[in-house]
Write a structure and sequence with these properties.
The protein is α+β, with helices and mostly antiparallel strands and about 270 residues long. The protein has one domain. The chain is built from three helices and 13 strands. The strands form three sheets. The chain has a six-stranded antiparallel sheet with strand order 9-6-5-4-12-13, with no helix packed on it. The longest helix is centred in the N-terminal third of the chain and has 19 residues, at about 1-20. The protein is globular and about 45 Å long. Mean pLDDT is about 85; it is low at about 1-30 and about 245-273. It binds calcium ion (3 copies). One calcium ion binds near residues 31 and 39.
Length: about 270
Amino acid sequence: MLMRTLLATVATLLALPAAATTTPAMAASAYTIDGDLADWRINSQTYMPDGPLKGYTIDTDSTGGLSQFVSPGIGGQAYDAEALYVDYDASKLYLALITGHDPSMTNATGWAPGDFLIDFGRDGLFEYGLKTTGSRPGTLYRIGAGNVRLGQFTGQMTPLGTISPYRGGRNAVAITGGTLVGAGELAISSAFTGYGRYTTDLHYAYEASIDLDLFAPEFRNTPFDVQWAMQCGNDVISADPPGGVVPEPASLALFASALAALGLTRRRTKPTA
Ligand SMILES: [Ca+2]
Ligand SMILES: [Ca+2]
Ligand SMILES: [Ca+2]
């Protein structure tokens, strides 16, 4: 997907200078988890954030009806994941998602929304998930390989360029089990218009925060990805902020320059058609 790759690359080029100038004092950020993404300072036309977020991915802005390709499946605007944003400060991890997928859908009426999944180590296996639906939305689960629902598409790639380690190379899309760790915050907006290339298309925003203390100490300072998809897996979006949660303040500047030196860039899961 040339456009998809280009968009991700542009995002990286614009984000890296900002990261390089990030200081520990600037790392503190606060978001109000209310489903209103005004505090993320996102350009409504381009989805670009106007600030040094830790990571984000802007996906292809599809439109139209269910026969339109959104990669790896079809589904048009109703199954379009537009952008995923990740930030953190000294105490919390923050997530924001914009999608054309109606959060009120269920697997009986179409496909339910998936959960936010977090892959520490960027090996394709998710260690945590934040529920978006069901009886406990906004709660964090520690999950293993057997605790996820898989999407419909096989042979999907991980951010490292290998096939997804889940059965059939499928994308993980939602939590089916695991151990309840604690409560995060989650807010989902009602439908809104005015975003993206197709300003009359309906969008929905998810906003979440997770207390960093809920993650096991072994994952501190470990690179991680965040992924979301609706439960069919028709459109998958993934963002990988450089570095791990709870960076040590003194290491931040070094960390940014080391990233530049290594040529590390943000990559997204790039499903094959
Ligand atoms: Ca907000
Ligand atoms: Ca769209
Ligand atoms: Ca992992």
